[in-house]
Amino acid sequence: MPEMIYADAVREGLAEEMRRDKLVWALGEDLSTAHTSTSANQYKDLIEEFGPRRIVNAPISESTIMGAGVGAAVAGTRPIADLRSIDFAMCAIDELVNQAAKIRYMFGGQARVPLVARMAIGTRRGAAAQHSQSYESWFVHIPGLIVVTPSTPADGKGLLKSAIRCDDPVVFMEHKELWGAKGEVSADPEHLVPLGKARIARVGKDLTIVAWSRMVVLACKAAEELATAGIDAEVIDLRTLWPWDQEAVFASVRKTRRLLVPQEAVLAGGFAGEVAATVAEALGDVLKTSVRRLGAPRMPVPYAPPLEDEYRITDRQIVATARSMCR
Amino acid sequence: MPPAATAGTERSNQTERIFGMFKTMLLIRAFDEAAHQMLVEGLVHGSVHQSIGQEAIAVAVCGNMRRDDLIQSNHRGHAHAIAKGANPTAMMKELFGRVGGTNGGKGGSMHIADFSVGMLGANGILADGMSLAAGAAQAVTLKGEDKVVGVFVGDGSTNRGPFYESLNWAKVFHLPLLVVCEDNGYASTTATSSVTSGGGPAVRAASFDIPVVSVDGNDLRAVDAAAAELIERIRNGGGPQFLHAATYRLTGHVSKDQGMYRPAGEFEQRWDHEPVRRCEAWLAEQGVSPGDIEAAHSAAQAAIATSVAEAKLAPFPAPSLAYADVQDVGGPSCPK
Ligand SMILES: Cc1ncc(C[n+]2csc(CCOP(=O)(O)OP(=O)(O)O)c2C)c(N)n1
Ligand SMILES: [Mg+2]
Predict the structure, then answer these.
(1) Which of A176, A252, B282, B298 has the highest CB neighbour count under 10 A?
(2) Are B71 and B149 in contact (CB under 8 A)?
(3) ipTM score for this prediction
(4) Nearest chain A Cα to B322, which residue?
């Protein structure tokens, strides 16, 4: 299988779907003009192949990028509304929550909204308070939405393809610090990664670490470190937060009887709490020790590197917490 | 000189056309009156936004559209739905929250929708319809169809950002979109002029280089003529057009609202300009007999009475249906 970086893999997935289905198109700011300077090249060369009607360079109108995406989805096309990052998507939350997520239901199933709302999450060095946020848990709370947080190039591609083919609205969240990550990616255009199925990123028996997005990379790194201390951690990459693969997590926790859920987002109100509570309710009696979570302090993301480091959860913190759980 | 009103006289095509639209106005008015009555009786739930006094706009705009053209409505959507051809009985069942309702009882008055006639839904979030309609128009373009998309927006809603984003968008992408501003002077309990700067919706739309036609929205024939021209322009590739229709709502913002915020006398005075009576007078001048007009009124009343009777008999949906149509992957499961 060819190796490629995450941003290229996702772009390849988009291009394959656009070739397969003429009703797949993308709209967002700078899609046909941005190159490495301002973006991750996620749309490079697509305008040449698909033209300006399918790679639509939008005005700076986030509400309408999302709203037009919803309207165009209802009217029978499969748009990818690209908000660039969750921070800018705030200007279009209404259209996502009140329209995309409601239309199928409140109209009694008369309409479907096959929309992909694409918005990157995560801290990128020095990006500070308004370009670094991780609000994936918000969307888990919205009935009607599917929430996707791929951690590898292969999943970025395979999950985007599934998202595009899905008849319900999908929030597709790449992590900015993963865009350059390398990995093997299937060249088969029919290789799809199913929505709602976790991946066991590392097999282990002493402790389950459940993670998603970039935290999977840190969890795997921590697991290697733990191995040198004789702790064999299993790392589960959720891949999608809604629906999330409870079966895979339960099976792992039944085996390891310990659960740690680290997340990049602010701890309070985060998705780690949902995983922890669900496992505690279902498997409280098999746990050897209380479920533990890790998450950022409840502060905006600061700018200066030593301050930003206070916000970031690190592999070292995962190691330390895991060790304390296995004592 | 109007032709004499003798029985057996051939009425002109234009008279027949307006008489047909007049009947649709009567149906809308009867529907909205009954909807309020049923709310009072506790059979309709939540609140009801009526279009009494504003019927001419919906009827004339939709009357110039094809069945496969699309309209995007707002919170005041009954008139738009009926004018586009939705079945009033299915709509009344929806207001009752019963089986057979247009939305299967999931939406009610404020989300009334009938996709089978291109009515893409009433919507509870003001001005959002603008961007949804722009997107639908973009889809029409992408698919190479010759459909026109219409969107209804209230005067008050034109102070929201999406209105401007979408006008710009529609112009930049040259979309087949007709924006219809139903300007009834009020946004809920606030006189829109008291919170709106400049020359209002028409001037604002014109600043995007979108052609604007302003019309007396209570004059059915005037709206008909304007809508016909604008829709033809759009169908011929002319890009977005804007219809500004001045009107007045003769009831409250919601049906139970007494309208205490209106200046004394305004309400009574406006009744003299409402579209049904004005149209009736014109039809009489064209030779439509009082008997035919009376029969049209009776037919509308009878049709809506039947809708209400059928809605009363329809059962509520099974509770398990609350779990349906959330999403295919990850939807809720019904307990037991
Ligand atoms: C975004 C949003 N803000 C506020 C409301 C509450 N609201 C419902 S209707 C209305 C007034 C709308 O006035 P206008 O646009 O003129 O339409 P009209 O009711 O006169 O038909 C308000 C404020 C809402 N539904 N959505
Ligand atoms: Mg108004």
Answers:
(1) A252
(2) yes
(3) 0.95
(4) A105
